[in-house]
Specification:
337 residues; alpha/beta; globular
C-alpha cells in the first residue's frame, strides 16, 4: 500500500539564519528536493511547509532537526553533508545521528578540521578510541588510512603516546625493492608516499623532518618491524592485504605497553603472488573473539573521494560477483545434460 499523503509545517528557530540551512541560492534545499521528489517543499520566512508521503515527510523533519543541530554547533553545511545526512537517516541503524557524526572533530590543522563523514567512519573512529587493536577494512577512498593517521596525530598531541609509527608492506604491482634503482630511501619512498601525504595534511610540513629525526614519527617498511617491541606508540599498518599470515602475526606481536594499533586494507586489492593467502583475510577468523580487538567494515557508501569512485567500486564488485557465478551456472547446465 502506498503511504497516505500528509501536510506538515516546520518552524526553524528565528535565531538561525535560514541561508545557513538552505544554502546560497537555495543550493542545499535543492539537494533535499532531489532526494525526496515526491514531497513538495515550500519555504516562507522561517517556516518550511511539506506535503507528500508521510514517511518522507517524517524523514525530512528529522533531517531538518539534524541540520539545525549541525549549524548550531558552529559548522557550515555543504551539499555533500546534506546528501550524507539523508543516507544516514535512510539507514536502519539505531545510532544514525548525522549531527553526532558531522560535528565530532578529530583534529584541526592549518585552518581545516578533520572529522568522520559517514556513520561507518564514525564507528571506526569510535572503535579506535575504545580498543587497543582496530582493523579498518574497505575499498579505496573510504578514509581508512587518513582517519587512522588523524587519530595518531591527535594521540601524539594529547600525549597519549610518545611516537607514531607508520608502516606498510613494500610489495605492490609485482615490484621488489632489490630491482628498483637508487638508495634504500629512494626505493622505499614510493611505497610510503601515501602515508607522508596524510601526515603533510595534519602536521606542519616543516616540522616533519625534525620529528622523524627525533624518532617521534617513523615511516618504514613492514620488514623493519621484525624483532622490535613498540611501547608508548600509535602504530598503523597500511595496505595490510599485502601481508602474509606470518607477517601479520609478526606485526601484531610487536604491540608493547601503552600502545595502540590500527590495521587498514582492502581485501579486494591484494598484490601478493598467486597462491599466497593474505594475512588480512585470515586474521578475523583468528582474533574476532578477542574483546580488545575491533573489526570495522567500510563500503562504497563511505567513499569520500569523487562520487564516481563509489560507482567504480560498486561496478567492480558486481563484475567480480558475476565472474564467480558464471562457472557455477556452467556446472549446473552441464549437470542437466
Amino acid at each position: 500500500m502506498s503511504e497516505q499523503p500528509t501536510d506538515h509545517r516546520i518552524v526553524v528557530p528565528p535565531s538561525l539564519p535560514m541561508v545557513s540551512l538552505l544554502g546560497a541560492g537555495d543550493s542545499l534545499l535543492r539537494v533535499v528536493e532531489g532526494a525526496f521528489p515526491a514531497v513538495a517543499v515550500h519555504v516562507r520566512g522561517n517556516e518550511i511547509a511539506l506535503s507528500g508521503p508521510s514517511g518522507d515527510v517524517r524523514l525530512i523533519e528529522r533531517l531538518v532537526d539534524e541540520l539545525v543541530a549541525v549549524v548550531r554547533a558552529g559548522q557550515g553545511l555543504t551539499e555533500d553533508a546534506v546528501e550524507r545526512s539523508v543516507a544516514m537517516l535512510r539507514s536502519t541503524a539505531p545510532d544514525a545521528r548525522p549531527a553526532d557524526v558531522l560535528t565530532a572533530n578529530i583534529l584541526s590543522s592549518r585552518g581545516r578540521t578533520i572529522r568522520a563523514k559517514t556513520l561507518n567512519q564514525k564507528r571506526y573512529v569510535d572503535a579506535i578510541d575504545t580498543h587497543t587493536i582496530v582493523f579498518g577494512i574497505g575499498p579505496a577512498g573510504t578514509g581508512k588510512t587518513y582517519l587512522a593517521v588523524a587519530k595518531a596525530v591527535q594521540a601524539l598531541q594529547s600525549k597519549q603516546v610518545t611516537r607514531i609509527i607508520l608502516t606498510r608492506p613494500a610489495v605492490e604491482a609485482g615490484e621488489r625493492l632489490g630491482f628498483l634503482p637508487g638508495t634504500l630511501y629512494d626505493k622505499i619512498d614510493p611505497y610510503l608516499r601515501p602515508l607522508y601525504d596524510a601526515l603533510h595534511d595534519m602536521v606542519d610540513p616543516d616540522s616533519i623532518p625534525r620529528l622523524m629525526t627525533a624518532g617521534t614519527i617513523e615511516v618504514a617498511p613492514l620488514a623493519y618491524m621484525r624483532g622490535r617491541s613498540l611501547n608508548d606508540a600509535f602504530i598503523i599498518l597500511d595496505e595490510a592485504q599485502n601481508t602474509t599470515p606470518e607477517q601479520m602475526k609478526m606485526f601484531l606481536t610487536r604491540l608493547g605497553f601503552s600502545s595502540h594499533m590500527v590495521v587498514t586494507g582492502d581485501v579486494t586489492q591484494t598484490d601478493l603472488p598467486g597462491g599466497t593467502r593474505s594475512g588480512l583475510v585470515q586474521v578475523e577468523s583468528i582474533l574476532s573473539e578477542l574483546d580488545d580487538v575491533a573489526f570495522c567494515r567500510l563500503t562504497s557508501a563511505d567513499v569520500v573521494r569523487h562520487k564516481l569512485v563509489s560507482q567504480i567500486v560498486d561496478a567492480y564488485s558486481r563484475y567480480d560477483a558475476e565472474q564467480v557465478a558464471a562457472p557455477q551456472r556452467g556446472d549446473r547446465s552441464r549437470g542437466r545434460r
